[in-house]
Design goal:
Elements lengths: L2 H30 L4 E9 L11 H7 L3 E8 L3 E7 L13 H18 L3 E7 L3 E8 L2 H13 L9 H11 L5 E6 L7 H10 L1 E8 L11 E5 L6 E5 L3 H25 L2 E6 L5 H10 L1
Parallel strand pairs: 3-4, 3-6, 6-7, 7-10
Antiparallel strand pairs: 1-2, 4-5, 8-9
Helix pairs in contact: 1-3, 1-4, 1-8, 3-4, 5-6, 6-7
Length: 287
């Protein structure tokens, strides 16, 4: 992609997603993702009803009358975006590709995070870790994330969600909020998800295209697996072929949903041919 075209696309996404963050998501984000604990703010004189556990004994001894510590919510979070850049992100049959939807979602979350004074970092993964953008703040940092998502070319086409989750667990020492943005075609990550979600607050954003779950009747089609490179001919005019495809896809989706449920991980389903605002808002409101 030419530099001028890339910058134009970055600017377009910035205008759209920054507006969404300012006008729609900011309040819901702040409510949904609270600070990681309580931080000391100041001391004041003891009042009737205050807990004796909050007494600051050093200040009390100095002034010869009781004072207590006042705490405030520690607002700053570290937010990590764990983003799937495997070959299947280039799929899309209607208004946009999955990778275009992923970039918009990542931008919305990033702008919402910095409005709340949170740090935002990124791990790009395929079947290995492709790139890490350390947590940071500010508009310049967000624009770098958008630019990299638009222009990044992964070295591999496969998917390994477990590897990404293990890397997050080892890389970020303090508890963080992590959005895993993927189509989750690889569904063998239950153990890694359980471990990661005990240390961090994991949220799954499942990006999908409707044609991954139902085939249209279009006659004989040659299809290619974007991750393995395998090709095959499919007779989509056959009702039995379409039915078998739908059943297999439904089973995979049920298995994926069960994995998230057992791990206690919140999930939002985001279609390439629909609005992602409502699913994200519902996710934030339910937390």
């Amino acid at each position: 992609m030419e530099t001028a075209d890339l910058l134009k696309k970055v600017r377009k996404i910035e205008i759209k997603t920054r507006g969404l963050s300012n006008n729609i998501f900011a309040g819901e984000y702040h409510t949904a993702f609270k600070g990681r604990g309580m931080a000391f703010s100041e001391v004041r004189e003891y009042q009737y009803g205050d807990s004796i556990r909050d007494i600051d004994w050093n200040v009390t001894a100095r002034f010869n009358r009781p004072f207590i510590k006042i705490f405030e919510e520690e607002r700053e979070l570290t937010v990590m975006l764990i983003i799937d850049v495997s070959g299947s992100r280039d799929f899309g049959t209607t208004t946009r590709l999955k990778k275009e939807l992923i970039t918009e979602i990542a931008a919305v979350i990033s702008f919402s995070a910095i409005q709340n004074n949170d740090k935002i970092g990124v791990i790009l993964f395929s079947d290995k870790i492709e790139m890490i953008i350390p947590p940071g703040k500010g508009k310049k940092h967000i624009l770098r994330i958008i630019r990299d998502l638009l222009g990044f070319e992964p070295k591999s086409t496969g998917t390994n969600v477990s590897e990404a989750l293990r890397h997050l667990t080892n890389l970020i020492k303090k508890r963080c909020t992590a959005f895993v943005i993927s189509d989750f075609i690889d569904n063998s990550f239950a153990d890694a998800l359980n471990i990661a979600n005990k240390k961090h607050d994991i949220i799954a954003l499942h990006v999908y295209d409707k044609r991954e779950y139902e085939l249209p009747s279009m006659g004989l089609l040659r299809v290619k697996d974007a991750e393995t490179g395998r090709e095959a001919w499919i007779d989509t005019s056959s009702a039995s072929v379409r039915g078998a495809f739908s059943r297999k896809s439904k089973e995979a989706l049920e298995k994926l949903d069960a994995t998230f449920k057992r791990s206690g991980v919140d999930v939002a389903k985001l279609p390439t041919d629909g609005d992602y605002i409502v699913p994200l808002m519902n996710l934030f409101k339910c937390r």
